[in-house]
Write a structure and sequence with these properties.
Strand content of chain A: 5-15%
Largest interface: A-B, 51 and 51 residues
Strand order of the largest sheet of chain A: 2-1-3-4-5-11
CATH class of the largest domain in chain A: Alpha Beta
CATH architecture of the largest domain in chain A: 3-Layer(aba) Sandwich
Largest sheet of chain A: 6 strands, parallel
Number of helices of chain A: 12
Number of strands of chain A: 12
Helix content of chain A: 40-55%
Organism (chains A, B): Mucilaginibacter gilvus
Number of domains of chain A: 3
Oligomer: homodimer
InterPro entries (chains A, B): HTH_LacI, LacI/GalR-like_sensor, Lambda_DNA-bd_dom_sf, Peripla_BP_I
Distance between the termini of chain A: 69 Å
CATH topology of the largest domain in chain A: Rossmann fold
Shape of chain A: elongated
Structural class of chain A: alpha/beta
Keywords (chains A, B): DNA-binding, Transcription, Transcription regulation
CATH superfamily of the largest domain in chain A: Response regulator
GO molecular function (chains A, B): DNA-binding transcription factor activity; transcription cis-regulatory region binding
Protein name (chains A, B): LacI family transcriptional regulator
Order of helices and strands of chain A: HHHHEHEHEHEEHEHEHEHEEHEE
Chain lengths: ~350, ~350
DNA sequence: CTGTTAGCGCCTTCAT
DNA sequence: ATGAAGGCGCTAACAG
């Protein structure tokens, strides 16, 4: 291990004090321009690199923002992360990223690691099975800003970045009904997560508004994976009376379900109309193209990170507030059965 | 800001020294079991959390591994990152992630930030236009392990995790030739990156082995984006004599190109057979399904991170070595023109 | 404008 | 088995 240059080495060489070197290296106003140049040049020449561990300790701040997400490898989440990284990096913070792998246990242990690492703020999208947020209480107690995005949790101290899932789902469902669907299956995930319960509620609301009965046989709850879509198709095919519409809470599952039904001779959208959620890249590649709800992960990441950064840079002035991002219904062939739309 | 508990607070409360508390909190052998329990209990009760900034400074290690990638939001890269995160997290390291956004300039500035943050190792996949790795020299000089993956760079001190792009491209091209293609266009990106030049070389080799002429009019170089695929389709349609096969260096671009050609009345694969690279999720959704090269990003991330972690945990014993991961040709309808395959 | 001093919280000799 | 003391590198008072 090569010996690292410190500000003391620079100070010695220049016969000045370490304090002056420290000041010269930042843009402290009270340093002579000449000595400043001397210092910067010497630092450059000697290959000095500032030791963040030391300055972090001294300043009692880590310069790190933490992120905990269920999984990194989904199209949506990688967009979110990209957006977060951009904002955080531009603001000269660093990013600690970890994935809960959809379990509350891992989420809690990640949170603890983040806490010990003194992250200055934490961005979280919750795991499937997270029932309470006791594991985030230490952050709230310490007033370390905690922002939820997408898979949010209701808590007075924590702003949320999300879309209006209720409204979006109601729109999708209404659209299917407009297309003549009378018996619409809804496939979704753990209703503990508000993103899913809201979508479910929006769906039910639309049915109700059109005097369509909802009953439990129309609801399929799984993990919205690709495999789950295949299984759901199996369930649908076994139904005593086939549905004429399916609204799935994500595109991944919607597509595999739709393709499986196609293989079994079901015509999309004539026999069964389909709609998904997320506007995944695959949605406009699959045939027929999938009707879905579009909302940009990148923008959600940006919004969450911007909120955090603004807050950190101006702690006591800026009040953090929740943000509802725009989403839009994108109608494609998978649900188009008449010309009225 | 609430006052944080330190080992001194615990020491005071227990009327023992901070040194003993420090030892008790880890599994130092020379502490009485009883006092250890006392210490751990008191820490728990008082809400102590270890200050990593202080211990990092003292120990002269950051416990952080850095990652620099071109972009986070691609299906492949998010798989890689997921794999890296898993391994790094399990090994109790933290992950700093940043994206170069495909420019060498940003890559260099990210590298500098990583250096100042004292990352203990750096995992890198290079930007499109990175011509040399001078910006990584400080790592090499300091013997901070530097591992390249996917978009690698040849350097004696830096192991590489990659696939055999030459072989894979030769396989794809040979397959297209076997299907009767005689005039195969190759669409790729900056040949500065070995992943692309190797694929190009493999392609040329296959042509040569089958006595097919290569000439520059068969090569289209762009950024392999979706839009570039549309543009490439335009170029192809304008060619004096249409090709009967297209091999694209990624699936994203392959698919948009293929779909654009379809819209212009070209039959796939009868008129033009198609092959991509990466086995993106969209490849088996598009119609016709896209022939491609499959290799798992998740495994590449795991492999790179495992190499790094093993090295860090056993610095002077383990020699780092490059790893060539397996890849395989996946034949789908987009290239199937006869029954011989 | 620059120097002196005193920690930030932890860990690790060295001593007991 | 425990304590005392010094220092990791930096920076913010406080003096000059």
């Amino acid at each position: 291990m090569m010996k690292e240059i410190t500000i003391y080495d620079i100070a010695d060489k220049l016969k000045i004090s370490a304090a002056t070197v420290s000041r010269g290296l930042k843009d402290h106003p009270l340093v002579n321009h000449k000595t400043k140049k001397l210092i910067v040049d010497a630092a450059e020449e000697m290959g000095y690199r500032s030791n963040y561990m030391a300055s972090n300790l001294r300043n009692q701040k880590s310069n790190v923002i933490g992120v905990i997400v269920p999984r990194l490898n989904s199209s949506f989440m990688s967009d979110v992360i990209a957006g977060i990284e951009k904002v955080v990096n531009d603001a000269n913070y660093n990013l600690f990223i970890s994935q809960s792998l959809e379990t509350m246990k891992k989420e809690a242990s990640n949170a603890k690691a983040m806490l010990n690492n003194r992250v200055e703020g934490l961005l979280v999208s919750l795991a499937y099975d997270t029932a309470d947020i006791a594991h985030f209480e230490p952050f709230i107690k310490r007033k370390i800003p905690l922002v939820f995005f997408d898979r949010v949790f209701e808590h007075a101290a924590c702003p949320q970045i999300y879309i209006d899932n209720y409204k979006a789902a109601r729109e999708v469902t209404t659209h299917l009904i407009d297309q003549g669907c009378k018996r619409i299956v809804h496939i979704t995930a753990n209703l503990l997560r508000s993103v899913y319960s809201e979508r479910f509620n929006g769906y039910k609301k639309a049915l109700e508004e059109h005097q369509l009965e909802f009953d439990d046989s129309l609801l399929i709850v799984n993990d919205l994976s690709s495999q789950a879509g295949v299984a759901a198709a199996g369930q649908i095919l076994k139904m005593p009376v086939l549905p004429d519409g399916v609204f799935v809470a994500n595109d991944l599952c919607a597509i595999s379900c739709m393709q499986t039904l196609k293989k079994h001779g079901i015509n999309i959208p004539q026999d069964i109309a389909f709609a998904g959620f997320n506007n995944d890249p695959t949605a406009c590649v699959v045939e027929p193209n999938l009707t879905t709800i579009n909302y940009k992960g990148y923008e959600m990441g940006e919004a969450a990170a911007k909120l955090m950064v603004a807050h950190l840079n101006n702690y006591d002035v800026k009040q953090m507030h929740s943000v509802v991002l725009r989403s839009e219904l994108i109608i494609r062939e998978s649900s188009l059965r008449n010309k009225s739309s």
